[in-house]
Design a protein that fits this description.
Length: 229
């Protein structure tokens, strides 16, 4: 289990580094007086970067494409050590860059608040999943089909604007789904940790990928819930 948490910690660190690279790039651009970056003051008195949407999308989509390619590469290399670790690093780094761009497009000031909330929920769900006597494997099918539904709705939102209460309801459902996945995946680690055959880096990587994706998606759903329309 220690291997899993070691890889997970490195992955989240790489994601943080990627997000900071994106945020610092636009902050520096504003300090340099670039015309595509301005600053507005939010209703809470915070400074919020505003970046030209067209430029933001021109950066976002190529980085997202690279991120997807890295993830596919990770899936192919997941049992090839240490290549799988390298691919995990590249995937999480590019994931962080896309996350930083998303934060810029919404409100980067929410990042710390949402990160703390995500950490608390993850710790709570992880503790229950690892130490309770409940077998959460029954959640597998329910979570899978719920996730499919969420993916369909997310795809529809690319073409149809969903705002206000409806957006927050969808985000809340998404939060419930990924909290469920955290319970499920931490519980799965609990079952495997005492089996010597599974105490290796490849299995640890598989488990860390699952939990990493749960945490990042939980972060995004919380961001959607708390962000302004």
């Amino acid at each position: 289990m220690s291997k899993t948490f070691f890889i997970l910690s490195l992955s989240l660190t790489m994601c943080y580094v990627g997000a900071q690279l994106a945020l610092n790039y636009f902050r520096q651009a504003h300090r340099d007086g670039k015309k595509f970056v301005t600053v507005k003051t939010t209703q809470h008195g915070e400074q919020d970067l505003v970046v030209d949407k067209d430029l933001l999308m021109k950066i976002f989509w190529p980085i997202l494409g690279i991120n997807v390619v890295c993830f596919i590469g990770l899936m192919f290399a997941r049992n090839i050590f240490p290549l799988n670790m390298v691919m995990m690093g590249l995937f999480t780094l590019t994931d962080g860059i896309t996350l930083g761009i998303v934060l810029i497009s919404i409100n980067e000031n929410l990042a710390i608040k949402v990160a703390w909330l995500t950490a608390v929920i993850t710790l709570f769900a992880g503790t229950i999943g690892l130490y309770s006597k409940v077998d959460f494997s029954f959640l597998g099918q329910v979570l899978f089909w719920s996730l499919i539904g969420l993916i369909v709705i997310t795809f529809i939102r690319i073409f149809v604007s969903i705002q206000g209460l409806a957006r927050r309801v969808i985000a809340f459902i998404g939060i419930m789904i990924f909290v469920g996945y955290l319970l499920y995946d931490f519980n799965k680690i609990k079952k495997l940790r005492n089996l010597a055959a599974f105490n290796n880096w490849n299995t640890a990587l598989d488990a860390s990928i699952d939990i990493y994706l749960d945490i990042i998606n939980l972060f995004l759903q919380l961001l959607d819930l708390l962000g302004d329309d």
